[in-house]
Fold this protein.
Amino acid sequence: MQRDFPSDPRSRLKPAAVFAVLAGAAVLAGASTFALSNPDAPDKPAQAPELKVEHAPVDRARTPAGSFAPIVQKVAPSVVEVFVTSKAERPEMSGDQSELLRRFFGRGGNPHQFGEEGPAQRQHGLGSGVIVSADGYILTNNHVIKDASEILVALSDGRQFPAKLVGTDPKTDVALVKIKVDKLPALTFADSTETAVGDVVLAIGNPFGIGQTVTQGIVSAKDRVSLGFGDMDEDFIQTDAAINPGNSGGALVDTEGRLVGINSAILSRTGGNQGIGFAIPSSLCQWVMTSLVKNGRVERGYIGVQIQNLTPALAQEFKLDRINGALVSELVPGAPADKAGFKSGDVIRQYNGQPIKDASQLKLQVAQTAPGTKVPVEVIRNGENKTLEITTRNQPNEQKLARENAPDKADGHKEALAGVAVADLDRNVRAQIKVPEQLQGAVITEVNPDSAAYEAGLREGDVLTEINHQPISNAQDAVKSTENPTTSETLVKVWSHGGSRYLTVDETPAN
């Protein structure tokens, strides 16, 4: 490492994007205009809906070998069409999004309607929904009804009713609407935590506006996260049952006709189904729905930590025998975790009695903890197990709950801090890269693209705050900390883009 003076620390390389496709509402050309209630003034129901929930797992010994017709006949009346009217906007599509990242809402057969030859005043779309209570509550996706000025629900028997918005939760892509009808055929909820990979499932919805359609597949995976949907609480069920435009908000059911998920997204290179679809688990939908009915919004717990996933190299540096858990890289001063005695470098292994597999799982567990709840948290600190008690609070608007950093995917490669130049953090540099006044460290002014440090993720403009667990106050500290290394690996903590993360840099010579 060498000491240098900053050129322009703002110059940075963005991480590679993860592409996923929202299975959005299919757009209908020439759709009628529906006079409906204003969703900006949602009704607050007098009482919570009565849901039918069965916690027993599906009877896997009785999977139908011949026909799914009896299940479809039972479930189909509970899946509805959701028509929305909203202001049309010209779809925005960058070059690297055109192949994999495409919102289905906004493309159709009439170019005048969708802004391809000029702006349109109104746009009509179609998605799906699921009746979950006999008195008219219907689950769908947030992206189906987002910005809708009018919502209409069409039942399978042909009746149509205006719908009023109860609430939405963009973080889970769940929305709840209500129609004024009684004695509706509501679906029974399954306990999605009991769903297993390999279970047979059916997807029911209204793709492309052609009418109700059923597709069959299996649960391909569970607990899918980090799919590139931004700041969402992700915990998707993956299925190979065909999901297409218009299926959004529809039902994913098991072989007993119980709801295991709400279809939400697909991963595709073509914009159509390629066998990788995602559904929001029914248990997560229940939590969101209860919060929306009770409060009109979702109240999430908050503990004030920034976390990241462990990698094999990080686990080795922290003397861990496995990579399960969430690594605490930064604490919000005065937040619940700070008050409870958490420290940077702690590895959270259990939260409220539940094992923690990774950072995304912890983020979701914390979010679903009611504010004001006291929970035990098991951490590993310097190789020792500790149990701390933390009291959650409401998530502040200006903070992100348990924010996740991109994992260090390139550690374990050759070399370390060779090729890295640093400088002191002066007032001008702090202003340029918006470094908090209380943060101490050394700013990276240069990283050789051929170095292991670059491979590990260090970039110009990052601020080194720790090297091998030793705090860094200035450039001189950073240089001294890299002299006479005793191992081929270096553990560094860096601040960038408003948060901190740990990285390991391996300088083992290539064979």
Q: What stands out?
A: The mean pLDDT is 79. The chain is about 10% helix and 30% strand. The longest helix spans residues 282-295.
